[in-house]
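Hi support team,

I submitted a single chain yesterday and got back a structure, but I'm not sure I'm reading the token output correctly. Could someone confirm the output below corresponds to the sequence I sent? I've pasted both exactly as they appear in my results page.

Thanks,
R.
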Amino acid sequence: MPSVRSHLRPVIAGATALLAVSALSACADDPEPTSGSRPVETSAGEGTETSDAAPATPGGTPAALALVDAGAGPRRVVTLDVAEGHTETTSLAMQTTTTVDLMSSAPIELPVTLPYTSTVTGVDDDGITVEIDYGRPQVEAGDDLVGSLLAQAEEAFTLLDAATTEVVYAPSGQVVSQETDLGASAPAIVDRLLDDVNASGFALALPFPDEAVGVGARWSLDGEVTVGEVTSTTTTEFELVEVTARGYVVEVRTTQTALPGDLPQGVGAVVDGSTTSTGTFEGRVGLIGPASATATSEGSATVEMGGQRITTTYAVELDASTS
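Hi R., thanks for writing in. Yes, this is the structure output for that exact sequence:
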């Protein structure tokens, strides 16, 4: 039976950080852009930094994948199954609802659609090289999104347009290396936006186990991820619920816990935070991104700024498709 390509994207985990950390970064008024590659979570070793520019943002510690149950037979080893020159486009729609316990603020809803194109530029026995080109995100205006906030959101997300990321995957789908080109004169907020995008899984693949697996297989991935100098521990649990000659369906549950620490540029400190995400991802042979994916996420974060503690709660709904 043909091999099944592995490219799960638990994209929900960092979706809210994309908004919250970027907003805090903008308040901090960063003076200089940052570019170059970022270390990423892998189970093979430490991430590397190859940039000759400013130091890259830490991506986290190596993730540890553990097979819990190989599932029922028949079993197979799941690997990437794409050829050099393959190109596909993914559309990822996120609906984020955020509430801040400050001056009785009303909930803010922010619908965003992020398109990106993935092109396979190299395939050999050691792995697959993929170039990701981000398109122009679309931000929809709602009744509760005032003009100034909408303008800031559109400006921040628009800066992603024309940015690219090169990812090298092992045959199993594990990320070996990842390097991002921000383009000329990109401000620092773009660097943080891409850190957030990558941390949430837009450009990174979480692998299947190296062992053969069947329906009912379960495995987990533990690690750390750093977004805008905020570090969180993550645990992701996978269960293979369907597998055919064409693809697979996997249910994913991720818990993310923020570690106490300072926010970028000394604007405040993280007190605590946690997010729980659940989703279903349908993969298909010959695709890098999910043929379809739906996920929901809920969480909260408390920061201390100017001697005052502020708690933000959020919910995110996601729909993604690749063609």
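A quick pointer for reading it: Residues 1-62 have pLDDT under 50 and may be disordered. Let us know if anything else looks off.

Best,
Support desk
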